[in-house]
Write a structure and sequence with these properties.
The complex is a heterodimer of chains A (about 110) and B (about 240). Chain A is an alpha+beta fold. Chain A is about 20% helix and about 30% strand. Chain B has a six-stranded parallel beta sheet, sandwiched between helices. A five-stranded antiparallel beta sheet of chain B has the order 3-2-1-5-4, sandwiched between helices. The chains are: A alpha+beta (about 110), B alpha/beta (about 240).
Chain lengths: ~110, ~240
């Protein structure tokens, strides 16, 4: 389902670019199981570490933002997949037990 | 995302135009399409076979990966709408809460002592009679209509108009007894019992709401439940 909130995020993306910031946009493109945010949810990031929106309940935003640094400023887009957290292995994941696929692109 | 695509997206938002962004998640190329599947901008050539899926996604308000092409279709629809008939105390609580939930709100009440900017700052107020107002506001499948005046002269014509529309939720304030009397009146206006059954009354999810804010919460909870087709809550045995 789509969310009106995403549209406000796009206005913000434009404003950030107009300020000269390097910006990337992450979008949930698929979910399995009990993922916290629906398909179409978006996270906006800049190179200074500012975040708006979300692609999970807060579990993977930090990891997505790290990956996004390579995408900002015109890098190739990335498709990231996150599954269940494996605390023993210190990996990033979803505590809820779901799985999400996140597309990360630069905002030109 | 190309800047011209972002510009076209934000323009569509400003114009309240439903659009879909189609993305090749392999290389990032994109096309922005309108609800008829016409390409507005972008560097992706959308296969003709995808157009029905784009139209269906916009109509159902559902983003997702297309099974056949693997392309991602993201729907950007205008906000859901809530038409509030009755500029009453409950409306004052309901409007800000509905806005947080992403609804664009219109208030209908011909009584200017109720519907005025002092009581409802920044809210679109319509002073036309509710049936005329609803003809103009034209509720669709992404619109909820709630009748809150407690006055049949105002509530009834609004409900009759709402029942003639595809509004996904229609609610009316009042007790079970009031709702029973309403049914008798509306039957005389030609509303059959199946049609009348679309009206949620007494309004809202049964959470024991008492204050205006609690009643607003119960209305929004029920609207959410109906919109997502969630099963009614049941008491644990």
């Amino acid at each position: 389902m789509s969310e009106s909130g995403n549209r406000d995020l796009l206005d913000l993306a434009k404003a950030w670019r107009d300020e000269g910031r390097e910006v990337a946009l992450a979008t949930v493109v698929a979910t399995w199981g009990s993922s916290p945010r629906p398909v179409g949810s978006q996270l906006l990031m800049d190179s200074a570490g500012n975040l708006e929106g979300s692609v999970s309940g807060g579990c993977i935003e930090g990891a997505v933002a790290m990956e996004a640094r390579a995408v900002m400023g015109g890098g190739a887009p990335k498709l990231l997949t996150y599954g269940v957290t494996d605390e023993a292995a210190w990996t990033v994941g979803l505590a809820c037990g779901g799985e999400v696929k996140v597309f990360v692109e630069a905002v030109e | 995302m190309q800047r011209r695509t972002l510009d076209a997206l934000t323009r569509a938002k400003a114009n309240q135009q439903p659009v879909a962004l189609v993305t090749d998640i392999g290389n990032g190329s994109q096309a922005l399409l309108d609800r008829e599947g016409r390409s507005l901008t972008g560097d992706l050539e959308v296969p003709g076979a995808l157009i029905p899926a784009v139209e269906a996604a916009i109509a159902a308000d559902r983003s997702g990966l297309d099974d056949n092409s693997g392309l991602f279709i993201q729907v950007f629809n205008p906000p859901l709408r809530l038409i509030v008939v009755g500029a009453v105390h409950i409306a004052q609580a309901l409007i800000p809460m509905a806005r947080v939930m992403g609804y664009e709100v219109a208030v209908v009440d011909p009584r200017r002592s109720w519907a005025n900017a002092a009581r409802f700052p920044g809210v679109t107020l319509t002073h036309a009679w509710p049936d005329e107002a609803l003809d103009v506001l034209a509720p669709d499948h992404r619109t909820a209509v709630v009748a809150l005046t407690h006055d049949p002269k105002l509530d009834d014509p609004a409900l009759v108009r709402a029942l003639a529309s595809n509004a996904f939720y229609i609610g009316a304030l009042g007790s079970t007894r009031t709702h029973g009397k309403r049914q008798i009146r509306l039957q005389e206006s030609g509303v059959d019992s199946q049609s009348f059954g679309r009206i949620d009354g007494p309004i809202g999810l049964a959470i024991g709401a008492k204050s205006p804010a609690e009643i607003a919460l119960s209305i929004l909870a029920k609207m959410t439940q109906v919109r997502h087709g969630a099963p009614p809550l049941v008491k644990a045995a």
